[in-house]
Design goal:
This protein is an alpha/beta fold. The chain folds into two domains: 2-111, Rossmann fold (3-Layer(aba) Sandwich), CATH 3.40.50; 127-224, Arc Repressor Mutant, subunit A (Orthogonal Bundle). It has nine helices and nine strands.
Amino acid sequence: MIRVLICEDDFRVANVHESLVGQFSSFKCVGKATNVQTMMDQINEQDIDLILLDLYLPDGLGVEQIMNVKAAAPNVDIIVITASDERDHVQQAIRYGVYDYIIKSHSFERLEQSLANYVSYFNLMNRSAPFDQEHIDQLLERSLKPESSDFSDLPKGIDGMTLQHVQQLLKAMAEGVTAEEMGENLGASRTTARRYLEYLIQLERAVAMPVYGVVGRPERKYFLK
């Protein structure tokens, strides 16, 4: 389970983020903070894997917050969700190692995509087996976009690492899988899973067939080609 802390002083925005996090079975919202002091207290009191962080909190502004978090908990990942599009903020946040930086005007769909991608990233980062070069390339793909990747020129809303994970799961599920089942395996929503499955069909790497369930309604099952 990925433990998420939401740091946002606007309770309405925080509730929206909490609702979105709740759509993913892999995430658990373990707390919300409306200021830097509460955020740091929660970081010191419990294990946190991911922080959804607004840069503008009442008692702390700018990227100093990222430095404080990393100093207290170096292994915590951060997705910045902020109104700030200032060049210095973006550059420094990336240099300090945030997982993602999302401007609030684009936040809902963009955050949903980022959370779906993070599940694959988190699972790969925390594997018990040694890493081979393919795994390392997948982890670094977000910034390097290596030419060796099987997928290039991906459309908006499709992440290469997540797409590879979906393809690997399809390969392991020879009996086929529904979008809902794929979402459960990914720790993502059914909508997100369907988007990746349909994209694999576009690439002619997967096929879909209607399968009739118990109540007679056809389900769309996906198979690797």
